[in-house]
Amino acid sequence: MNTGVDDQTFWDAIEGYCGRLSFAPGETAAVHISCQTGQFDLVVERWAGQRVEVWETKGVAGQYHPAPPNADSEGCGWPVSVEIPIGQDWESGFYLVTLTALGAQRGRDTAHCCFVVRARAEDRQSVLLVLATNTWNAYNTWGGRSLYTGGHQVSFRRPFGRGMLCRASVERDDRKARPVRRGERPDIDGEIFQNYRTAHGYPSAIGSAGWFTHERRFVEWAYRNGFSFDMAVSADLETVPDLADGYDLVLSVGHDEYWSATARDAIDTHIGGGANFASFSGNTMFWQVRLVDGADGDAAAHMVCHKYRAHLDDPVVEGPDRAQMTGMWADPIVGRPEWSTLGAGSAFGLYHRFGQATPTGMGGFSIVNPDHWVIAGTGLTYGDVVGSDDGVVGYETLGCPVQFDDCQRLVARPHAHQASDIDIIGFAFSSNLGIGQYPKSIAALNDQGDLEFIADRIYGEVNDQNLARVRRGNAVIVACRPFGSTGGEVVTVGTTDWVFGLASDVQVQTITANVVGGLGSASGRPS
Questions:
Q1: Who contacts 321 (Cβ-Cβ below 8 Å, separation ≥6)?
Q2: How far is residue 477 CA from its own chain's centroid?
Q3: What are the b/e assignments for 25-35, b being 16+ CB within 10 Å?
Q4: What is the pLDDT of residues 201-239, one digit of tens each?
Q5: Alpha carbons 117 and 93: distance in angstroms, whole number
Q6: Least confident window among 363-377, 393-407, 437-451
Q7: What are the strands, taking DSSP E only, across 349-390?
């Protein structure tokens, strides 16, 4: 079954998903598989600095199960095919499950699913990386719709889209904000990306979310350079009590757009208690979601977000829990904008090198505070640019209201709900996009623009003045203390594509190491 250009449902002869995305050592991971051939193999690998096989089973009897009509919103409901015993000695981390349908057409015989093993409380390291699985789910079109193609509820109990977890690595053609080399024209309409992903049978989600696109790059770099950490998934911040307890630093990487209120509470409590948070992510905490249990009581099986029509369609708006509305965190009904935690938000700059948003922008950050500890050891001075060769600024960003002080230093301009003690370290131009300004290749926003939406919801009306207030923005690297001197520190590198510079850019690597090493150590960051 394949229902459209952006739906790869049963593109391959085998599909599968794990009954949960997160387990503790000693638990059993149930894998639900639909196979169109008589037998399949299953291999489990822990993916850190490299992929290491930890478990396998061969020649398992295959059985085909169709995708139900509501697979996108309610899950597939397939029976358990394989149970994976997670050893007490399995390290915390990301585990890739590779499924191979024996006898199927080559190139369409393999699929992937995944799970994370959390650390036992007594074995916790100092740093926790929380994979942005809520955002993976939001972009996942498997079985029909995503939150970008008409859905308002999406299920974790279905396969991830083809290529979101594992695929052949292409460093430019599979990116929505493709770096531009000397003499090249920018791919404003995303045609190169569109041609690449359709030729390989990938959904558009591979340019926006998934392990392979973002977190995988960070994890490989970190482990190869002596860093290690525990892992969890987005929903764990809601379903696992005291998940962040004992960690000096919690990390967010890539594209961490969708957050539940309970998860947000957990992170704010973590920071308020004196621990740290670092976000190497763009468009972070933009949408509030609600996690809902499955019909059988399965905890946090599905995710609800009404997005642009939440103030009109979300039932909670008419009740006492209206602040739980699944729209923007910055919406006045919710009243808890992301910049109160991060020091930056997408209302102040959302896109760079994407469609008509700064299409020939520099793709890197200009350093405006070279004396800051985040920049130590890079050799960067005032006005230098970091990361432009790899296009680390793009495609989605976070910005900050700014102004110059009496010494011509770029500083944060006071704004409602703004975090305190903000230091602006790096800056790039970024902007919001209106109707007709997006790449023609994307699968959403045919009749809705973020520019018009943000102007309406934050400033109360779509008019020329409010559109002008929203249109021009920036992307920033900032450090702040959201809860004052008694709380922990937050560093926000406000771009989805920062991780693309980790493979070869020494300055990007050094900044990342400064943040992870400084905030992730009980001894504290450099002075």
A1: none
A2: 17
A3: bebebbbbbbb
A4: 999 999 999 999 999 999 999 999 999 999 999 999 999
A5: 5
A6: 437-451
A7: 365-367, 385-386
Secondary structure (3-state) at 354? strand
pLDDT tens-digit map of 375-413: 999 999 999 999 999 999 999 999 999 999 999 999 999
* DSSP, res 312: H
CATH of 1-167+202-218+287-327, one of 2.60.40.350, 2.60.40.1930, 3.40.50.620, 2.60.40.290: 2.60.40.1930
Buried-exposed string 493-524: b where 16+ CB fall within 10 A, e elsewhere: bbbbbbbbbbeebebbbbbbbbbbbbbbeeee
Spans of all domains in the chain: 1-167+202-218+287-327, 248-283+337-527
Q: How large a percentage of the chain has pLDDT more than 70?
A: 97
Tell me the one-letter amino acid at 512: T
Residue with tokens 């990301």, as numbered in its chain: 94
Q: Determine the Cα–Cα distance for residues 180 and 336; give it in Å rounded to an integer.
A: 37
Which DSSP category does 340 fall into? H
Tokens of 517: 């090493």
